[in-house]
Amino acid sequence: MSSKAQRLRPIALASIGEIESELMSTVADDIRAVLGRDVVLAEGLPIPAHSFSRQRGQWHATTILDALAAVKRPEWLRLLGIVDVDLYAPQLNFVFGEADADRRVAVFSTARLRVRAEGATGAPAPRPSTSWATHSDSGTAHGHAARCGSPTRSPRRTGRTPAHALTMPARWRARSR
Q1: What is the pLDDT of residue 153?
Q2: Measured between alpha carbons, how far is 148 from 139 in angstroms, rounded to an integer?
């Protein structure tokens, strides 16, 4: 496929399980703003029952990626799934998301963002960072530390802005300086 055709392909966004439509719209708007791409809202998927680990009380992220890969259409550049359950990957306590660059699918979870925000302050959860979409677009959504190095390299501690932070909406970059 030509590079021009690649640029024209939209990113698809799918809810997995019960996700608020307002969150889906917000993430779609942010992806459009950050990546300058069309976004299509794909049909939602159920959470694969076999992805749940009773031993861990969590859902296996790679199994959810498999479900996304099974429904990804060739006309979509990427398929990003949003889920509100606690995800894990082998050898890790949890993950916020996971991506498969070869199959061009990614999933991220809002579960730990919501619990942390509500549990800590009683306030509603913040919007998930669009940096997840940009990280998963590059095929590395295992977490900020895995993609960007030590969390001590944040702009707040060093006064520098990591290169990927430039893909965040301006209103979020202003808060991180």
Answers
A1: 36
A2: 13
Number of domains observed in the structure of the chain? 1
This prediction has a pTM of 0.65
Domain with residue 112: its CATH number is 3.40.390.10
Whether the Cβ atoms of residue 140 and residue 147 lie closer than 8 Å to each other: yes
User: Which residues, in sequence order, are CB contacts of 86 under 8 Å at separation 6+?
Assistant: 57, 58, 59, 94, 109, 111, 112
- Mean pLDDT of all residues in 97-110: 96
Residue 65 has pLDDT above 90, yes or no: yes
State which residues form the domain around 105: 3-148
Closest listed residue to residue 136, CA positions, set 56, 40, 35, 41: 35
Taking residues 148-171, what's their average pLDDT? 39
Are 17 and 54 in contact by the 8 Å Cβ rule? The answer is no
Could you tell me how far CA 36 lies from the centroid of its own chain? 17
Position of tokens 């992805």? 51
Q: Can you say whether residue 158 is alpha, beta or left, with left for phi > 0 and alpha for psi between -120 and 50 degrees?
A: alpha
CA dihedral of residues 118, 89, 54, 49 (deg, nearest 10): 90
pLDDT of residue 61: 96
